[in-house]
Amino acid sequence: MKLATNPTLVERSTDGALRVSSLALAEGAGVEHRAVLQLITNNIDDLEQFGGVAFEMRPFATAGGTQTQRIALLNEQQATLIMTYLRNTEKVKAFKLALVKAFFEMAKRLAAPAMDLTSLAGIDAILNAGKAALNRAIEAEQRAEKSEARVDLIEGGKGFAVREFHKHYFSTTPEKEFNEFLYHRKLLIDQRGARGRDAKGKLKNGKAHRHPAAAGKRFFFLDPYIDPDTGDRHYSTKVRPGAPETELVEYLTTNGFESNNNRFTTNIKELSA
């Protein structure tokens, strides 16, 4: 694999820091870019323990013309952490090694002055740097064994029901308050009591109650199921898995909802245990 000597794998940002893009990680590991972005978003608090995560829009060519896509830029520690969350295929393992080498080679290339290879101190410094890079690769490999199954939740999930989504991401917010926001922003249809009351005086909701509204269809979809007792067809509103789920989390957090720490992956302490 020649990624280790690829000059575009690791880049130097305007602040002088060495970073790798989420797109480069996705291409090198052979996974979808949206899955890498989702891992980054779902673990942003952990990643920012190693510094701020930068995002930017970059152009790319398509058959219909030039478009833009959102890219994350990660430093070495952040990139190493994200790689531990990826399924440990042969390609991913090879890319992890290539990534560590790329950061090391770029740092060595930019370092000044050059190390003195004629002195014991210079040789010792090189050996220590190489040992540190090897240890990082070994630690990443060990943590990856614990996280392979978790990525399946992102790439192969069928979507959270609205109540499950609330509990998973925003359990500190009362469910009633959470639902009222979805109704108020017209993300879900509000038909509470639309069919009057039943014989016991209980409000009967409309048949489309809590279905995705026009503005909410980018986040939600109707998942059909058959009632095993009656054979009737019903629909359950679920959050679209993948990028829409990540975007919904971002949308809610920017509107004042506090996201909890129950993410698709465990935190760093668990991975290091």
What's the short version?
The protein has 273 residues and is an alpha+beta fold. It has helices at residues 22-29, 33-42, 44-47, 76-84, 90-110, 120-155, 162-169, 175-184, 243-254, 268-272; strands spanning 11-12, 18-21, 54-62, 65-74, 220-226, 233-239.
Salient structural properties:
2 domains, 273 residues, two-stranded antiparallel ribbon, disordered C terminus, 10 helices, 4-stranded antiparallel β-sheet, alpha+beta
Fold and architecture overview:
With 273 residues, the chain is α+β, with helices and mostly antiparallel strands. It has 2 domains: 3-155, no CATH class; 162-272, no CATH class. 45% of the residues lie in helices and 14% in strands. It has helices spanning 22-29, 33-42, 44-47, 76-84, 90-110, 120-155, 162-169, 175-184, 243-254, 268-272; strands spanning 11-12, 18-21, 54-62, 65-74, 220-226, 233-239. The longest helix is centred in the middle third of the chain and has 36 residues, at 120-155. The radius of gyration is 24 Å and the shape is elongated. It starts with 10 loop residues before the first strand and ends with a helix. Mean pLDDT is 77; it is low at 1-5, 146-156 and 262-273.
- Cα shape: elongated
**Topology pattern, helix = H, strand = E:** EEHHHEEHHHHHEEHH
Helical stretch count?
A: 10
- The computed structural class is alpha+beta
Strand residue content: 5-15%
Radius of gyration: 24 Å
Mean pLDDT: 77
Across the major sheet, the strand order is 1-2-4-3
N-to-C span: 31 Å
Q: Strand tally, please? A: 6
The largest sheet is:
4 strands, antiparallel
Number of domains: 2
Low-pLDDT runs:
1-5, 146-156, 262-273
